[in-house]
Amino acid sequence: MNGDVPLGELLQKLRGALRLHFSDHIYATPDLDARLLVASACKLNDYAPLIERDRLISKEQQEKARAYIERRLKGEPVARILGEKEFFGYTFKLNEETLVPRPETEMIVEEALSYVHKRELSNKMLQIVDLGVGSGAILVSLLKELPRAVGFGVDISFKALEMAVINAKYHGVDERFFPICGNFGGALTGLFDIIVSNPPYIGLSEKDNLSIDVREFDPFKALFAGYDGLKAYRDLFPFIRKHLKADGLAVLEHGKDQAIALQKMAKSADLCVFETFLDMADLPRFLKILGNDRINS
Ligand SMILES: C[S@@+](CC[C@H](N)C(=O)[O-])C[C@H]1O[C@@H](n2cnc3c(N)ncnc32)[C@H](O)[C@@H]1O
Fold first, then answer.
1. What's phi and psi for 190, nearest 5 deg?
2. φ and ψ at 195, to 5 degrees?
3. Looking at the predicted structure, is the pLDDT value of residue 64 above 50?
4. Distance 47 CA to ligand 1 centre (A)
5. CA distance linking residue 37 with residue 34, whole number of Å
6. Going by CA atoms, what residue is nearest to atom 4 of ligand 1?
7. Same domain assignment for residues 125 and 169
8. 19-57 pLDDT, tens per residue?
9. Cα 241 to Cα 192: distance, rounded to the nearest angstrom
10. Range with lowest mean pLDDT among 144-158, 168-182, 263-277
11. What is the rounded distance in angstroms from the CA atom of residue 46 to the CA atom of residue 259?
């Protein structure tokens, strides 16, 4: 039809624009970005732009693909443009109040699952809480992997929580997912087997050092925690002290320069057994805390 162009040609042209724009960015992935954006604009699977190069693309779809690429050129991350992100093998829908889940955060899920499997607890009705649940990435992944567990997802943002509920439904775990809108542990009572959190941990003083895709496109509430970035942990540690079962596990994500400060805070909060562990880039990014009956184990 008039104005239609082959998919391969469209991809080549739009990829060229991204390559040029991101030529100085060592971590940029212009080829992958172009393929995903073009595929989505044309309502095709992610690999179609590589293997269906002769498929004709309508003018309307070309315009949509161009609009996506324009947004990417302005720094908007691909996941924001597509409105979804893959995490632990599951797709999570996003809105403007949810953080784009990061690959390193999957280590929280791995650590919690390893704890459950080592102790052969996977058939128990474990009670899990995710403080700052966002899109639901951590909690929904855990509920998918642990079919008898129940999870409480807390978030201060009602809109983020709405998205977590949609994701819990989409993945078929909504009957075991309990959303709570409020300040971290403020609304919760009782004891938990597993407490997970990837809270906001960036200091307001660091705002200008962030890359544009984070600063401009991730929600403020998901990123910033007071001037020093430690504000959220001041709520989280007393909560863990009070609500983690004696044989339970808590895993918290934090910034790469915060490990020592957090160990000190954990000690002051009377938490006895804790350990920092590294992310995939060997940076200290997580604190694992065991319940207080582990003092001698
Ligand atoms: C870094 S994001 C993490 C989101 C999700 N868990 C993930 O890992 O992708 C932090 C989340 O904490 C929420 N949050 C910030 N302050 C909070 C507070 N005082 N109480 C509860 N949730 C809060 C934000 O709205 C945001 O969804």
1. 90, -175
2. -120, 125
3. yes
4. 33
5. 5
6. 134
7. yes
8. 999 998 888 899 999 999 999 999 999 999 999 999 999
9. 11
10. 263-277
11. 38
Q: Residues 152, 282: one domain?
A: yes
CA of 264 to the centre of ligand 1 (A): 23
Residue with tokens 């791995």: 110
Alpha-carbon separation of residue 203 from 95, 103, 134, 198 (angstroms) = 23, 21, 19, 15
What is the rounded average pLDDT of the residues 267-293? 92
Residues with C-beta less than 6 Å from any ligand 1 atom:
99, 101, 105, 132-135, 137-138, 154-157, 160, 183-184, 198-200, 221-222
Nearest to 292 by CA among 275, 276, 277, 270: 270
> What's the structural domain count of the chain?
2
Do residue 177 and residue 271 come from a single domain?
yes
Number of separate helices (H) and strands (E) present in the chain: 12, 11
- Contact call for residues 233 and 278 (beta carbons, < 8 A): no
Residue 53 lies in domain: 5-74
Read off the pTM: 0.94
Q: Is the pLDDT of residue 58 over 60?
A: yes
- Please give the distance, rounded to the nearest whole angstrom, from the Cα atom of residue 281 to the centre of ligand 1: 23
Closest residue CA from atom 6 of ligand 1: 133
Q: How far is the CA of 135 from the centre of ligand 1 (A)?
A: 9
Check residue 2 and give its pLDDT. Answer: 72
